[in-house]
Amino acid sequence: MYLYNETDQRLVDDRVVQFRDQMTRFLDGRLSEDDFRPLRLQNGLYVQRHAPMLRVAIPYGTLASHQLRKLADIARRYDRGYGHFTTRSNIQFNWVRLEDTPDILAELATVQMHAIQTSGNCIRNITTDQFAGVAADELFDPRPYCEIVRQWSTLAPEFLFLPRKFKIAISGGAEDRAAVRFHDIGASARVAEDGRIGFEIFVGGGLGRTPMVGKSLKDFLPREELLNYFEAILRVYNRYGRRDNKYKARIKILVKDLSLEGFAKEVEDEWSWSRGGPASIAEQTFRDMDAFFARVDYAPADADDPAYRQALHDKRAFARWVERNVAPHRANGYAIVTLSLKKTGAPPGDAIAEQMDGVADLAERFSAGEIRVSHEQNLVLPHVARKDLPALWEGARALGLATPNIGLLTDLVCCPGGDFCSLANARSIPVAAAIQQRFDDLDYQFDLGPLELNMSGCVNACGHHHIGHIGILGVDKNNEEWYQVTIGGREGARAALGKVIGPSFAAGQIPDVIQRLVEVYLAARHEGEIFIDAVERIGLEPFKARVYGGAA
Amino acid sequence: MNTLIRNGQVVEDGWQWIDADEALPAARLETGGRFLLPLALWLAHRASLDPARAGVWLGPDDELEPVLPWLADMPLIAIRFPVFTDGRGYSLARLLRNRHGYRGELRAVGDVLRDQLYFLHHCGFDAFLLRADQLPHEALAAFRDYSWEPVTGRRVLPSM
């Protein structure tokens, strides 16, 4: 893992002092609400429905055990004993007191954490694949590049007041687990034929009000040009992105207005000034950064450990958990484990302080003290010996984190919705709970197979509903909560946006609607064909007909 | 006279601001004062102006190309921030300083607040005409908000 040097530490310490002063001036009336708002947002502080909400950054989703314990500590001392993991590897505390936030930030700074740029019209927290560095299928580890971009983008003075927020994701693999095509900039690892390392760069993707799949801006960018090229994109956007209408201010609208070719030309012109120049990344920087993310020295482990084999054979629940929650690791005898934050009855992505402490302990025992946060709002232990899986499973079960539903229907992604968020049109948590209750039967879920359901309480799309195989969007109709349903969205290499199936539904109808959608799939599927592939093959009509009875 | 911060000092300044829709009668120019002109007016009169007495101010959507040939002789360029959340001026400043080597005074004017000074300075501004409600002497502390320096600012910093 990356460890702060003196410069990084000074930054977060200075930031706390600066924000404490700003908060003092705000509370005693010397700083107006309008002047303070962008300052507090760039420190992760929202004013929400019930209380202020503090969004803390977990850069590229990587946490050490002591950091997770600090988050638990903050949840206990400053919140109501829990936190909410978001779809962009942040954690939100929903019940903090405004005047406590400088103290919370000071606590975070003691464990090399902060809330910088988790909101506001600036470059947001960098995200990546939750399996980065350990995935069996990756080309190279994206985390050194995430860290380089994190350092560059943190308080990058030129880009603190962009037209709108700006999200960057970097992934290292053939398989895209970072939704790079749904970010303002997405970088996807590439290795050229001559062995040079670089990235394919996508631009203008995003969800929200105007969802778009990112377009390929450059098929191979050499890694040393990463910052020069990103700066060129950001500068073109900062200067020419629309500022007259916040709904048309994201870079995707600029790309659309200029056309991809027109936008690319602007970026190339801008890049031509910096290309190969002094801000190109030095080889030494890559070496230094690689050292931070050097692979954990794994003790040789038996891929076919007898105790593990025995447990697989004896315990069906364990075998199921292994089937859904354990992913292949690049090292022989090791595995990547996903701890589900999607147990029926608990709000998706929420963890209570005891669970955070418990996961920190499990990570120390079984995963080199490291935890990842996934954009599907689960926690991941990236370095687990297969022989330890039975013990880890018992530990996770005791914490209520061993639901074997990763990638299944009840592993649904969901924003905090109208229960907390002042932007939301509708609540999402109760609807999520109703869906989880309806489909709680594991046999049924396993039979259904991989099915991603995403729900957002408003068009801002924090629940990424457009890319759910089934998407649910909360809408407001005459001050009533309604829910629009889409199908056919997906992330990854075959990224697509879901299509609306028809008129929206009341909350109570949603479990039935989902039931009907999956029944159409079950009747139509070919051997081994997953839900989303069946939707792509047979189209929307059979689903519409079943849900609306031909009336739609 | 305006009170502004220049090179880390609070100073009085006599440059006269000419708005975008103001005419510039020749008589006024002959009074011997120094004027900050909007880009269009500056371009129209440039040939007849004493470069030492004529600065230009740019709005956030002005392009830099028209002023580039004259940068070496220009004593003052001001960049106007209509609202402090409009960040276009930061890029203009970086381009003037880094790419085009402008060495004269670069002044931030308009909705310029204490809490942005550190970052404006790191993009190359060395003078700041703060919004009327700001306190220039108190605002000087902002240049010491951070003991750390941003990655992109390290090579461009004017002395303060």
Mean pLDDT across all amino acids of chain A: 95
Oligomer: heterodimer
Radius of gyration of chain A: 23 Å
Q: How far is the N terminus from the C terminus of chain A? A: 53 Å
By DSSP (H or I, 4+ residues per run), the number of helices of chain A equals 17
Q: What form of chain B results from the Cα inertia axes?
A: globular
| DSSP strand count of chain A | 20
CATH class of chain B: Alpha Beta
Mean pLDDT of chain B: 91
* Helix/strand order of chain B: EEEHEHEEHEHEH
Low-confidence stretches of chain A: none
Q: Structural class of the secondary structure composition of chain A? A: alpha+beta
Q: Label the structural class of chain B.
A: alpha/beta
Q: What is the count of distinct domains of chain B?
A: 1
What is the strand arrangement across the widest sheet of chain B? 2-1-8-7-6-5-4-3
Structural shape of chain A: globular
Portion in helices of chain A? 25-40%
What is the tally of beta strands of chain B? 8
Number of helical segments with 4 or more residues of chain B? 5
